[in-house]
Specification:
alpha/beta; two-stranded antiparallel ribbon; 14 strands; globular; binds 2-acetamido-2-deoxy-beta-D-glucopyranose; carbohydrate metabolism; secreted; hydrolase
């Protein structure tokens, strides 16, 4: 059978212009029945894969609306350090059809250290031998071959150390070319201990669409950077990190700033926006929290929006 890109180029060659009805790209998983443990609209399934010589696991939610012949987007959602995949499913709500009716949601799980703390590549305590960037790439190949996905609509979100990993995925030449848009929440962007700098950032395409949310009162991963709460390492200042992406994406230093995102009586939220491609929310009353309108696993402080809804809207605007 011809691959979709081939058929598409054939159509373009024949007609000379893109045809009106959208032709979705599709993965090898299209037409395949769901794996035994996985039910559309059912509880998430715990699935294992081998990557980098380790057995890794993830939770997968397939929406009720899933049809084996219709490609859908994929959302990867990474938990914070010391948390696990099911906690991230609860916190980020990507399995909730109110936020995400159509995309498959996958919650990868980090490897636990000798003290039983699960973490991701990029954390100062994470052994560099466990490469969660190549794990992500292996996971993407595995999912594309089993589920009917649109390979141009793969997205990544994550909390804290999981957000730090999302930032590294955006910088990696391979994964930056596989994932269409990135959403770190309370991202832990650690500086290299020996250089005092962020790790090298080499995306294979530009612009990289990226959105970050950070609580001004965050004491775990401070808004202005410096030592984390356990003094295991220094993180970068969030405005410096965001400016770095704006510069990399070739936007001018003059951004679009809105301080009226949340009207009174909500506490002040400032949004920075470069051409709807690099976006950042500074939430004055939040700590190390996934922003939400209701109390969640991270805490009882709320704001006027759910980060999950804003992320869904951001992702929906980007395809590879
Ligand atoms: C999946 O199940 C295994 C075995 O019980 C467990 O070790 C692992 O943590 C689970 N993974 C997820 C993502 O829940
Ligand atoms: C994930 O964490 C929750 C809450 O602490 C716990 O109930 C659950 O057993 C954990 N799951 C795994 C697979 O470790
Ligand atoms: C899904 O999200 C909606 C909107 O926040 C909420 O009312 C509902 O309780 C959530 N459902 C579940 C199962 O958590
Ligand atoms: C930190 O930078 C040094 C010098 O470039 C490099 O050798 C080392 O691998 C980096 N550490 C991490 C965790 O990436
Ligand atoms: C954090 O930065 C400070 C100031 O540059 C430095 O003295 C300290 O050693 C750093 N801490 C770590 C854990 O790298
Ligand atoms: C960056 O922007 C400048 C001015 O807007 C433009 O001349 C240049 O071609 C752009 N560079 C890239 C790599 O897009
Ligand atoms: C400025 O921000 C608004 C609201 O987020 C957006 O609609 C608009 O396109 C942005 N303009 C530029 C130039 O970034
Ligand atoms: C801003 O976004 C619009 C719409 O996506 C795009 O056409 C335009 O090239 C972008 N401008 C810059 C400077 O990147
Ligand atoms: C973030 O919000 C706090 C509280 O409103 C404010 O003091 C700080 O200047 C803001 N920083 C940026 C970069 O918006
Ligand atoms: C949120 O409020 C509830 C009820 O007052 C309390 O039991 C819980 O400990 C609070 N959660 C956090 C993280 O502070």
């Amino acid at each position: 059978m011809w691959s979709t890109p081939f058929v598409l180029s054939l159509l373009l060659a024949t007609t000379g212009h893109a045809i009106q009805s959208p032709i979705l790209e599709q993965s090898d998983g299209c037409g395949k029945t769901l794996p035994k443990k996985v039910t559309a609209g059912g509880a998430s399934a715990n699935i294992s894969i081998t990557s980098g010589g380790l057995i890794r696991s993830y939770l997968i939610h397939v929406p009720q609306s899933y049809d084996i012949d219709t490609p859908v987007p994929l959302i990867l959602s990474y938990h914070g350090r010391g948390k696990n995949a099911s906690e991230q499913e609860l916190l980020s709500q990507f399995s909730n059809s109110s936020y995400n009716p159509n995309a498959i949601a996958v919650y990868p799980q980090g490897v636990a250290n000798s003290k039983g703390t699960r973490q991701w590549y990029g954390d100062p305590d994470a052994p560099t031998s466990i490469n969660d960037i190549s794990f992500t790439s292996d996971l993407i190949s595995h999912l594309l071959s089993r589920y009917c996905l649109d390979p141009t609509r793969l997205y990544a979100a994550g909390k804290s150390n999981g957000g730090g990993l999302v930032g590294l995925l955006a910088c990696d030449p391979v994964t930056s070319g596989q994932i269409a848009a990135f959403a770190p929440v309370s991202g832990a962007f650690y500086l290299n201990k020996s250089t005092g700098e962020l790790p090298p950032c080499n995306p294979s395409r530009l612009p990289i669409p990226i959105i970050e949310f950070h609580g001004w009162k965050d004491k775990t991963i401070r808004y202005l950077g410096g030592p984390d709460d356990s003094d295991r390492g220094n993180t970068t200042s969030i405005p410096v990190w965001v400016d770095g992406w704006a510069a990399r994406d070739n936007f001018s230093v003059i951004q679009n700033v809105s301080s009226s995102v949340c009207p009174a009586p909500y506490k002040k939220v400032t949004k920075y926006n470069w051409n709807n491609t690099v976006e950042h929310y500074n939430i004055s009353n939040l700590f190390h929290d996934w922003p939400s309108t209701y109390p969640n696993d991270d805490g009882n402080f709320t704001t006027c929006f759910d980060a999950t809804s804003v992320i869904m809207d951001f992702f929906s605007r980007w395809t590879l």
